[in-house]
């Protein structure tokens, strides 16, 4: 039997509130995180991700009280990311009630955090978030990826909420995080984030084909068709969205019914 595909609402947090922007900029308030997460719980979300998007930039930890409140009220897996730099940070977040942690900037700065986290808490607890941006200047040793217009680019890993280019090839990094024990990859393309023009399919597909762990596609959903494309053309294991859920354009139930009608195995 085919594994069911997951639909995951993502709540970007700033100062304890849910926010949403475009290309990680121009943030607007979208509500209380626990209230929104409870709504998604009722609608049949497979899990929820909380990302404290300014924690790394501001050099502080994640909002523990929000996690505790959410864990008390929700009956679905909760992944938390943002500002996680040490094993102690991971311990605190899992103790507060999260099921998984998502690490991004700190994993790039100290890749051993992935292996140490996986060893201590199990691979299923460690999600590595990879934010990427297309780089048109091809370089030796980078993975060439053909865009729909036939142009070849490579995708660079960016950190600090998309503001810091690292020079790291995204495909090679995805393979390394798998080797180090990550249980899952949360892939966000800065090219499409917040645009509602659809997922960045070329990089999603390439990474999905080059690793053996689940890949969550993120960044760019605007229509029901985009979820379908994420699974079929992007070969993702899960699709993540934010604003289309926060502002009530679709319910999770609507998305799942649409996908089921098109032959995608989902949990209804």
Automatic annotation (TrEMBL):
GO terms for biological process: L-histidine biosynthetic process. Gene3D superfamilies: Aldolase class I. Pathway: Amino-acid biosynthesis; L-histidine biosynthesis; L-histidine from 5-phospho-alpha-D-ribose 1-diphosphate: step 5/9. CDD domains: HisF. The active site is at 12, 131. It is an enzyme of class 4 (lyase). It is found in: Cytoplasm. Pfam families: His_biosynth. One of its GO terms (cellular component) is cytoplasm. InterPro entries: Aldolase_TIM, His_biosynth, HisF, IGPS_HisA/HisF, RibuloseP-bd_barrel. The keyword Cell inner membrane does not apply. Keywords: Amino-acid biosynthesis, Cytoplasm, Histidine biosynthesis, Lyase. GO terms for molecular function: imidazoleglycerol-phosphate synthase activity; lyase activity. Its EC number is 4.3.2.10. It catalyses: 5-[(5-phospho-1-deoxy-D-ribulos-1-ylimino)methylamino]-1-(5-phospho-beta-D-ribosyl)imidazole-4-carboxamide + L-glutamine = D-erythro-1-(imidazol-4-yl)glycerol 3-phosphate + 5-amino-1-(5-phospho-beta-D-ribosyl)imidazole-4-carboxamide + L-glutamate + H(+). NCBIfam families: hisF. Heterodimer of HisH and HisF. Belongs to the HisA/HisF family. IGPS catalyzes the conversion of PRFAR and glutamine to IGP, AICAR and glutamate. The HisF subunit catalyzes the cyclization activity that produces IGP and AICAR from PRFAR using the ammonia provided by the HisH subunit. This is Imidazole glycerol phosphate synthase subunit HisF. It comes from Methanofollis fontis. The gene is hisF.
């Amino acid at each position: 039997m085919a594994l069911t595909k997951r639909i995951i609402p993502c709540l970007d947090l700033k100062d304890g509130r849910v926010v949403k922007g475009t290309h990680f900029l121009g943030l607007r308030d979208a509500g209380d995180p626990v209230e929104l997460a409870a709504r998604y719980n009722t609608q049949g979300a497979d899990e929820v991700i909380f990302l404290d998007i300014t924690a790394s930039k501001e050099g502080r930890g994640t909002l523990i009280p929000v996690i505790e409140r959410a864990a008390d009220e929700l009956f679905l897996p909760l992944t938390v990311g943002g500002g996680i730099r040490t094993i102690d940070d991971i311990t605190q977040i899992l103790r507060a009630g999260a099921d998984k942690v998502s690490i991004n900037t700190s994993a790039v700065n100290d890749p051993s955090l992935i292996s140490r986290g996986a060893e201590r808490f199990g691979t299923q607890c460690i999600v590595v978030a990879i934010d990427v941006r297309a780089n048109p200047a091809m370089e030796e040793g980078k993975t060439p990826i053909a865009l729909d217009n036939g142009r070849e680019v490579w995708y660079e890993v960016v950190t600090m909420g998309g503001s810091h280019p690292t020079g790291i090839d995204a495909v090679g990094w995805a393979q390394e995080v798998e080797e180090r024990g990550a249980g899952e990859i949360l892939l966000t393309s800065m090219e499409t984030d917040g645009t509602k023009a659809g997922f960045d399919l070329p990089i999603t597909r390439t990474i999905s084909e080059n690793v053996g762990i689940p890949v969550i596609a993120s960044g760019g959903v605007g229509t029901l068709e985009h979820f379908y494309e994420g699974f079929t053309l992007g070969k993702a294991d899960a699709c993540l969205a934010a604003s289309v859920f926060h502002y009530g354009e679709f319910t999770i139930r609507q998305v799942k019914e649409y996908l089921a009608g098109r032959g995608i195995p989902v949990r209804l």
